[in-house]
Design a protein that fits this description.
By secondary structure, this protein is of the alpha/beta class. About 40% of the residues lie in helices and about 25% in strands.
Length: about 525
């Protein structure tokens, strides 16, 4: 039986100019989709495809311009906010993307879960308290009474996401809308959250509408796929059928670009001298060992990946390699480097945060050349244009500022800036984790081409093993500040020796073929 039936949905956003609103941007252009009782439907697509706007319209967080939203046969598209509040939580639950911003920082988590019960007049205070503890236990949080009395900042990202799920299922809704519920989580935590949603679906018969840009997750978990692009449905159907024989060219491109679905052969490490040597590296913070005696070597012209969950010590290691942090003890050597700050460059995870919003693209890329006094003004301008061409950006972007660029364009600018002083080693700290799958694929391809053309050595920091498989020659797996396993990428993936490595690999979504 059909639980949710969206028909020809259109949603637009007014565009503000000064104090007047003029025209509007149509984000959803005639979308139709359905969810059967107990079914798991995934809506996939890049940023700007309209998938989140569609989900928000279903739950009434954004008004529809036209179309129907049939919930159990009743059209709720034109309902007032008062009427919609009656079905939020009872018929439809929402798990938002960012638990850090979705939870009230000054309220204890137990109080926030109880709010749904209070709004719908579910039991007295003691009954609500019992239900909150039941829910926290059900979503897998230890010591529910203690967790209920904690504030969001006292919980990890995975714990906060479980709190949001507890609030969403408090009244056992028939439909759970999950908007990128695991995009900010490590791969092992991601798997546990998705397993939890699956368990709840089996237990309560809850249907799930998952909004995601991660085709690997959608492929592994969903019964049906809805592929969106530019506000329209490009393709929909059974997950197995769409994966086996995608009808739309856009779907085929998404499948080709998704690292989790990649069938590329492993990269074989080149022979040669080391470009990075790390021995017995230790970093302590007030008695806490964030990095505990690690060592590895990276062959010149190759890519070595450091993988592990948040808190494993990857980024701290990267900062010591780039000398943005001093080790407590141990050695980092970059053989052949005469001027360290020129020879070793760092590309951060968030290009928007690492680019000066007041500078133009031309000024950002030229800045290292000015700092090292390389060339006169004319020579620097010529070099900037060459760098933009090398990272496949048009000259027309030179006068723009970071806010005027897409995420992929900003990351290309960050890479161009890093290449300006012709480094030998580039450290990439989660450099593609914030990007859509197609943009991610473009940046990975760019990095591979630059490595071939310029002989660059990469230290690639990531929690995403699917990406690591695609780009790296060798891998070190970190856990709690230590390296538990190292080897070629093929050895790590085909014959993992350590239980932690096997757990990481088991969490990588696989295609359902």
């Amino acid at each position: 039986m059909t639980l949710l039936d969206v028909r020809d949905l259109r949603v637009s956003y007014p565009q503000a100019r000064g104090l007047r609103r003029q025209g509007g941007h149509e984000a959803v252009k005639g979308v139709s989709l359905r969810v059967e009782e107990g079914e798991f439907v995934a809506v996939v697509g890049e940023s700007g495809s309209g998938k989140t706007t569609t989900a928000n319209a279903v739950i009434g967080l954004h008004p529809a311009d036209s179309g129907q939203i049939l919930l159990n046969g009743t059209d709720i598209a034109g309902w007032s906010q008062r009427r919609l509040r009656e079905i939020r939580g009872t018929s439809i639950g929402l798990v938002p993307q960012d638990p850090a911003n979705s939870l009230n920082p000054v309220k204890k988590v137990g109080v926030q879960i109880a709010e749904t019960l209070l709004i719908h007049k579910h039991g007295d205070k003691s009954a609500r308290r019992r239900r909150v503890l039941e829910l926290l236990e059900r979503v897998g949080l230890d010591d529910p009474a203690r967790r209920a009395g904690q504030y969001p900042h006292e919980l990890s990202g995975g714990m906060r996401q479980r709190v949001l799920i507890a609030a969403a299922i408090a009244l056992r809704p028939s439909l759970l809308i999950a908007d990128e519920p695991t995009s900010a989580l490590d791969v092992t935590v991601q798997r546990r959250i998705l397993d939890l949603i699956d368990d709840l679906r089996q237990e309560y018969g809850t249907a799930v509408l998952l909004v995601t840009h991660d085709l690997g997750v959608a492929a592994a978990r969903s019964d049906r796929l809805v592929v969106m692009r530019d506000g329209v449905v490009e393709e929909s159907g059974g997950t197995r059928e769409v994966l086996a024989a995608p009808a739309a060219a856009y779907t085929r491109r998404l499948l080709e670009d998704a690292p989790a679905l990649s069938t590329r052969s492993f990269k074989q490490p080149p022979a040669g001298e080391p470009a990075i040597v790390v021995r017995d590296l230790v970093k302590e913070f007030g008695g806490f060992r964030a990095v505990d005696g690690i060592g590895f070597e990276v062959t010149r012209g190759s890519t070595h990946a450091l993988v592990g969950e948040s808190g494993s010590g990857k980024t701290t290691t990267a900062r010591m390699v780039t000398r943005f942090a001093e080790p407590t003890s141990g050695v980092v050597e970059i053989p052949g480097i005469t001027e360290f700050r020129r020879g070793v460059q760092l590309v951060y995870q968030n290009p928007y945060g690492s680019l000066d919003p007041r500078q133009t693209v031309a000024e950002i890329v030229e800045e290292p050349l000015r700092n090292f006094r390389l060339g006169d003004r004319a020579a620097r301008r010529t070099k900037v244009k060459e760098l933009l061409e090398r990272v496949a950006l048009p000259e027309t972007l030179l006068a723009r500022r970071p806010r005027e660029l897409s995420g992929g364009q900003r990351q290309r600018v960050a890479i161009a800036r890093a290449l300006a002083v012709e480094p030998q080693v580039v450290v990439l700290d989660e450099a593609v984790s914030a990007l859509d799958v197609t943009v991610q694929a473009q940046i990975l391809e760019l990095l591979e081409r630059l490595q071939r053309d310029l002989g660059l050595t990469y230290l690639f920091i990531s929690h995403d093993l699917a990406v690591v498989r695609q780009i790296s020659h060798t891998v070190s797996v970190m856990n709690k500040g230590r390296i538990v396993e190292s080897g070629t990428t093929q050895q790590i993936f085909d014959s993992p020796r350590h239980e932690y490595t096997r757990e990481l690999l088991a969490a990588v979504p696989e295609a359902v073929r």
